[in-house]
Specification:
This protein is α/β, with parallel strands linked by helices and 325 residues long. It has one domain (38-323): TIM Barrel, CATH 3.20.20.150. The protein has ten helices and eight strands. Strands 1-2-3-4-5-6-7-8 form an eight-stranded parallel barrel, surrounded by six helices. Strand 5, helix 5 (194-204) and strand 6 (209-214) form a beta-alpha-beta unit. The longest helix has 24 residues, at 300-323. The structure holds manganese (II) ion. Manganese (II) ion (MN) is lined by residues 181, 214, 240, 275. Manganese (II) ion binds at residues 181, 214, 240, 275.
Length: 325
């Protein structure tokens, strides 16, 4: 079950607001081209979440043409729930919340105090997600987003699974999806690949838990993009599109034709969120953890509009390719 996976399921149905792309295949029996919901990470706009910063991020996201803003919730206490909810509604935006745990609140640990602290953080983040009208809570929520000094253990993994299971059961009551963003080896020792994430999800055993795939991380850990993405099937529920250098799409080495080709081929209809980081916009909680030292861009609007155009172009190209073979 993907987030917002409300694609058109019969070829005779047409949603007026999406527009038909004349170059796309819409032959009987094939899906009509439907735009996935596109999101952008708030760090493209601002590193904080004061009312002024929230307004800047939310209004800019809408002005750039996105459907959704992804709000980082590493520090849930800094988010004014009512204020954020009202601003999202005023601009007609959907939202998702993401965070990474730390070594101080790590549920991927044998230390039950740390596990309890992490559980508390996640439940607070779920309260915020619910409160702002979010539909998705994800990220590196299964453990610390940091470089571990060694591999995980069976006991630490079991603690993580138990908390995520409880979180998912809590979230299900509000129709909120829980996403596991597997990340590169320098940011987790638990989930680095699609397969590890699928195996972990089997242990959790809750329907509202999905794979959150990030091209940046897959580029480091997977053999490629197409096969692992397609292996997820309908368990893929959220996608991050980020370049190999975290900057402008197309300016790095990631094979986005393969990435978007797989998403179209597997009929993925969920959220696709653009993620990029520069030293020009800093969240102390996050930028240092992600090792954002260089200034790759300074104009968030130029970056975000370029990315949305890039993603739409790649999706259209993939639909054309698949429609003609
Ligand atoms: Mn990501």
């Amino acid at each position: 079950m993907g987030v917002g996976a409300t694609g058109i399921r019969v070829s005779t149905t047409y949603r007026p607001d999406m527009g038909l792309d004349e170059t796309s295949s819409s032959a009987a029996g094939r899906w009509l081209p439907v735009s996935n919901p596109f999101g952008v990470h708030a760090l493209v706009w601002t590193g904080g979440w004061s009312p002024e910063e929230a307004e800047h991020a939310i209004s800019s996201t809408a002005a750039a043409g996105y459907d959704l803003i992804e709000i980082p919730a590493l520090d849930p206490s800094r988010i004014d729930i009512a204020d954020t909810r009202d601003r999202l509604a005023a601009h007609g935006l959907r939202t998702s919340l993401t965070l990474g745990l730390t070594f101080a609140n790590d549920i991927n640990s044998e230390d039950l105090e740390l596990v309890a602290a992490g559980r508390s953080t996640l439940m607070s983040a779920l309260d915020i997600t619910r409160g702002v009208g979010g539909e998705y809570l994800g990220g590196v929520i299964f453990g610390a987003m940091d470089k571990y000094p060694g591999p995980t253990s069976a006991a630490a993994r079991a603690n993580s699974v138990a908390v995520i299971k409880e979180l998912a059961q809590e979230a299900a009551g509000d129709g909120i999806t829980i996403g596991l963003e597997f990340v590169n080896r320098y940011e987790s020792n638990l989930l680095n690949t699609v397969q590890e994430t699928l195996d972990y999800m089997d242990l959790v055993g809750e329907d509202n838990v999905v794979v959150h795939a990030d091209a940046y991380h897959m580029n480091i850990e997977e053999d490629g993009f197409r096969e692992p993405l397609m292996r997820c099937g309908d368990r893929l529920g959220y996608v991050h599109i980020g370049e190999s250098n975290r900057g402008y799409l197309g300016a790095g080495t990631i094979d986005f034709e393969e990435v978007f080709g797989a998403l179209v081929d597997m009929d993925y209809r969920g959220v696709i969120t653009f993620e990029s980081f520069s030293s020009a916009v800093v969240d102390p909680n996050m930028s240092n953890t992600l090792a954002i030292w260089r200034n790759l861009w300074s104009d968030g609007m130029d970056l975000a509009t370029h990315a949305l155009d890039y993603m739409n172009t790649e999706m259209d190209r993939a639909r054309d390719t698949i429609g003609t073979r």
